[in-house]
UniProtKB/TrEMBL annotation:
Source species of the chain: Evtepia gabavorous
MgtC/SapB/SrpB/YhiD N-terminal domain residues: 27-151
Keyword annotations from UniProtKB, A to Z: Cell membrane, Membrane, Transmembrane, Transmembrane helix
Name by which UniProt lists this protein: MgtC/SapB family protein
Main location: membrane
The keyword Hydrolase appears for this protein: no
Membrane spanning stretches: 20-40, 52-70, 82-101, 108-127, 133-150
Membrane-protein topology: Multi-pass membrane protein
One Pfam family in the UniProt entry: MgtC
Cellular compartments annotated: Cell membrane
Family from the record: Belongs to the MgtC/SapB family.
GO terms under cellular component: plasma membrane
Length: 234
């Protein structure tokens, strides 16, 4: 029994040491973990998907491997320094996934956070901290798959649709708002912008309506045909 336990300890110890086997195992594990996380993002049609998360996790793991190699071979350097640069450098990838839509909705925050967490997981794999990496992997999958259901069903924040109008100052805005109320939409806020013309009023209407959020084309056409409406953009 004691001998079996020693064999298990030796096997784990060899994977924690820096050798050909441990390097291959760590990189393959990083690829598998990152790929699974990226697959979930990919099937949801997010900006960063399978390949991005795989490359990110493998890159983070290799950074830790290089840090360990430099320290073990030359006895100089700080193994944590390169990993700190990875964490801060992930910002440019995360920023690329965050967008503000024409409807003033912010998208991509979850994907950006997933990229950052995947990089941290890759660092844990690269340094040989398998227990932490596995725990992070399980928790990330739990958050992305199960917590997402709760978030979507119970915590979804109502959003609004921004409607940009250019109307004649004399009758246009009143007709447009009257039509919007007639079809059952509600206006949350009206904000005026300079139009560059004294006879034209440029406004943004924030609408609270599921139909408006889906962009009902036929209704938009009818709104555009209202007297005094010069231009409409959604």
């Amino acid at each position: 029994m004691e001998g079996k336990r020693m064999i298990q300890l030796d096997w784990m110890g060899s994977l924690r040491d820096l050798n050909v086997l441990s390097v291959c195992v760590r990189l393959l594990l990083a690829m598998a973990f990152g790929g699974t996380i990226g697959f979930e993002r990919g099937i949801r049609q997010r900006a960063a998907g399978l390949r991005t998360h795989m490359l990110l996790c493998v890159g983070a793991a290799s950074t830790m491997l290089v840090s360990q190699y430099i320290y073990a071979s030359y006895g100089v350097g700080d193994p944590a320094r390169l990993s700190a640069q990875v964490i801060s450098g992930i910002g440019f990838l995360g920023a690329g996934t965050i967008i503000v839509t024409r409807r003033n909705q912010i998208k991509g925050l979850t994907t950006a956070a997933t990229l950052w967490a995947t990089a941290c997981m890759g660092l844990a794999v690269g340094v040989g901290f398998y227990e932490c990496a596995l725990a992070m992997y399980v928790i990330l999958i739990f958050i992305l798959l199960l917590v997402n259901v709760v978030d979507t069903k119970y915590l979804k924040i109502p959003t609004s649709t921004a409607l940009y109008l250019e109307v004649r100052r004399d009758v246009g805005l009143g007709n447009a708002i009257h039509f919007i109320h007639e079809i059952g939409w509600s206006v949350r806020e009206v904000k005026e912008f300079p139009s560059g013309r004294p006879d034209i009023l440029a406004v943004r209407l924030d609408l609270e309506s599921e139909q408006a959020m889906r962009g009902d084309i036929s209704t938009m056409v009818l709104l555009k045909e209202q007297e005094g409406v010069v231009r409409l953009e959604m």
